[in-house]
Amino acid sequence: MINKIYSSFFLIVLAFTIVACNSDKKEQQTLFEQVMLVHDEVMPKMGNLRALASELSGKADSLALDSLNDNSSEIQQLRNLSKNLKDANEGMMEWMRQFEQLREGTPHGEVMEYLNEQRKSIQKVREDMLNSKDEAEKYMLNFN
């Protein structure tokens, strides 16, 4: 009789453990997908950031050759915008270099903490990329 109670209790605990593990895995997968969604949104913009940074640097270089006019403020603005674009691009590269898949068996709490940190980090990268791109494009509209 006691063995039957222990066996039933063990089966119930095992069932709850399996359900909890599946729930944990789903929660981890959902958070991982949120992180990757932000990454996948801005990753394709990297080439555009590099091209825009190059264009801004080229304009700054052209203005620097003009010895008849004082273009120092425009040159500085162009160089700052170009640097912001390059920094934002490098932020994505750095995020990708440091992002790692956690080992199977890593405790759920650690996985969730790591993925939450990564979500905040990639959202910051996204913000930096989009803001630097918007600022540069607005400047270029007024520059021409």
What descriptive keywords fit this protein?
144 residues, mainly alpha, 4 helices, rod-shaped
Description:
It is a single chain. By secondary structure, the protein is mainly α. The protein has one domain (24-143). The protein contains four helices and no strands. The longest helix is centred in the N-terminal third of the chain and has 41 residues, at 2-42. It is rod-shaped and about 70 Å long. The protein starts with a helix and ends with a helix.
- What is the mean pLDDT? 86
- How far apart lie the N and C ends? 88 Å
Shape: rod-shaped
| Cα Rg | 25 Å
SSE succession:
HHHH
Determine the structural class based on helices, strands and strand pairing: mainly alpha
Total separate domains? 1
Strand content bin: under 5%
Q: If helices are DSSP runs of H or I spanning 4 or more residues, what is the number of helices?
A: 4
Number of strands: 0
The stretches of 5 or more residues where confidence is low (pLDDT under 50) are 6-20
Report the biggest beta sheet as strand number plus sense, adding barrel if it closes. none
The helicity comes to over 70%
Nutshell version of this structure?
With 144 residues, the chain is mostly helical. The protein has helices at 2-42, 46-65, 72-98, 108-143.
